[in-house]
Amino acid sequence: MSDESSRCDTLLPPPSSYFKNNCPIQNPFIGLYVEFDHIEQINLEQNQFRVKINFSIAWADPQITFAHLKKWKESILNNLISDIWQPILSFDSASFGDNMNMMNNEGAVFNYATISSEEGVSSVSNSEEVLLTSGSNITIFKRTIYVFSITCSYDFLYFPFDIQECDIPLKLANFGICQPKWNLGDNFIYVNATPKLNTISMYEISDIRFDYDKSVSEVKIITLKLLIRRASQTYLLTTFLPCSSLCILGQMTLTHFSIDNFSDRITVSVSLLIVIASLFSQVSSNLPSSDEFKFVDIFFFYAMLKLCIVYVIHAIIEKNVKKVTNNSVCDIVKGYRKKNSIDMNNIWSSNPQKDCSEETLHKVKLINDIGHYILLIIDVIALSLSLYFIITNNNYIEHNFKNFNITK
């Protein structure tokens, strides 16, 4: 009999009837532990993000026997591990190469451990006294650390005030008639809610939650869920506020420029339009490619359309001013045709010069004021609708996210 100190916790060779490609029982229960170490990269162009995940799957195998295991003491398992059945876990939203590495145990950090829920039974094996424990009382853990490339369907409609919800389905592979299923009992599914570290400064990562189909009795897919919130402060300072300031300057050409100063009014409006178009071109070159409109696109289109309307208002005002001032009565009264002028007081009892100037001034001021107030009303409506849809959409996403399961 060997010395106690020389004994090693070990897995005994499986029986000759053991087949590692079949489940030890028909529908084995699998436990899960998941922890996000950190998110390394978010790739908007490829709809992906890279995340380092530390996860463990746990199961029991009643067909095998262990020796020298103490009750509730974790032991590292190294020998003969390739000779026993192991669940295969696939990440449906990960790349094909990542799943192949998981299946072949390549490119990742792996280790195995066991915990016994019962004391071993004294027996003799190979002329030695040993404590044997049935595999039905042993929980086997396979721990993995790997950096996954996860595909996420980004929705850029409210960019850059968007919140992206990403799903990571964890699916158990079938083995013929053997169909492993997740153990939904207490303490068998553990998802660490908070990532250890977020290395992406432009984004905020939510707690990690999980969900599964509650309408089926045998759950084979557990979906991890997280929210990626974009930090929009930079866009406010570099895009929205400058563009809004230019729009305000364009609006001021209707209120702070003399009505008869068409040249200055139109020059400022066109210059502002060119600046906003240039800013939009610069911003759009750095936006993620997408076949759908983004909020920032709509914002710039609205800003350029507004300045075009301001330009049209100035043109209408100038046209009306010229139309009235070119009228022969006004020209005669103003002395533009002094050679042919006559005493108008003999024809009209009222003062035609006063009527002409007041009519012109009243009409162009009315056009100017109507245009100014209509644009203000449209601005208020556009701002209100934008805030409503952005806040409503983000609140809806966050509200639904809170309904998912969380490990406390």
Automatic annotation (TrEMBL):
This is Neurotransmitter-gated ion-channel ligand-binding domain-containing protein. Keywords: Membrane, Transmembrane, Transmembrane helix. InterPro entries: Neur_chan_lig-bd, Neur_chan_lig-bd_sf, Neur_channel, Neuro_actylchol_rec. The chain crosses the membrane at residues 235-254, 266-283, 295-317, 370-391. Residues 30-175 form the Neurotransmitter-gated ion-channel ligand-binding domain. GO terms for cellular component: membrane. One of its GO terms (molecular function) is transmembrane signaling receptor activity.
